[in-house]
Every structure is written in structure tokens, then in C-alpha cells.
């Protein structure tokens, strides 16, 4: 049984659905190969200004698996109803941490700081290429319903 405020319970349910349905593979990879297709070419990478190479999932790059995803503190929401799409972009490092999180879309900007603070505590089994951990780009999209 879930405990806590109703907004927290609803967010927990959403996060659990996203992360349990094959470790972010269903809704966490907008427009990207979710790791179910056979490799068909060279892995796609982007080089960041700081020199870090970040892969896109697919073509042999396997998706990460969530280990720890603490929830944001929604205490300041109170009894306010918030519904809408939430999109968070960043990359899962070879170290398993979620880096450079950015809110791409938010139903209420007052939640953004708390959501970003929570992503700094997320840990994953990293993406892999040929069995070795690599950095990979992630776009997670959620439908947020806080009542």
C-alpha cells in the first residue's frame, strides 16, 4: 500500500509504470529505438562541448535500467490540481548518474526546481555498447496528474 499525500502517490504510480515497464524503455525514449530492434548500423553519437561522447539508444546501444529514482517533494503543491505532460531530457552517464537534466515541457513551472533536484539523485545501470557502459541521451515523457 502506498503512503503519503495523494499527489505523491499519483506521481509514484506514474514513475513506477515508466520505470518498471522494461526500465524506461516504453515512454522514456521518445522517437528512439527502445532497444528491442536488432543492431542495424553504426551507433549514433554526439560530442558535447566538454568532449564527452553521448550515444543514442539503438544500433547496438542498449538502454539503461533504473535502480533508484527518488521522487520530488510536492509538498508545496498543496491542494492545487496539476495535470499535463512532463518531459525531462539529459543523459545517463557510464557512471549510472543522470546528468544535465533539463525540463523540456512542464504542466506547471513551479514544480521544475523540485523535479530537477530529484533527478540529481537518480541512479541507473548505464547504457551498454558491446557489454561496456557508455553515456546515452534520454528523453523521459510522463503524464503528470496531481490532485
Total of helices: 2
> What is the fold named in CATH at topology level?
TolA/TonB C-terminal domain
Which outline best applies? elongated
CATH evolutionary superfamily: TonB
Order of helices and strands: HEEEEEEHEEEE
Number of strands: 10
Low-confidence stretches: 16-39
Strand order of the largest sheet: 3-8-9
Largest sheet: 3 strands, antiparallel
The CATH class is identified as Alpha Beta
User: What is the annotated CATH architecture?
Assistant: 2-Layer Sandwich
N-to-C span: 18 Å
How confident is the prediction overall: mean pLDDT?
78
Look at the helices and sheets and give the structural class: alpha+beta
Proportion in β-strands:
25-35%
Q: How much helix is in the residues? A: 10-25%
Number of domains: 1
Radius of gyration from CA coordinates: 16 Å
Observed structural traits:
3-stranded antiparallel beta sheet; TolA/TonB C-terminal domain; single chain; elongated; 147 residues; alpha+beta
Written description of the protein model:
The structure is a single chain. The protein is of the alpha+beta class. The chain contains two helices and ten strands; from the N terminus they run H-E-E-E-E-E-E-H-E-E-E-E. It has helices at 6-20, 112-119; strands at residues 45-47, 53-55, 61-62, 65-68, 82-92, 98-105, 123-125, 127-129, 132-134, 136-146. The strands form four sheets. The protein has a three-stranded antiparallel β-sheet with strand order 3-8-9, with no helix packed on it. Strands 6-5-10 form a three-stranded antiparallel β-sheet, covered by helices on one side. The protein has a two-stranded antiparallel sheet with strand order 1-2.
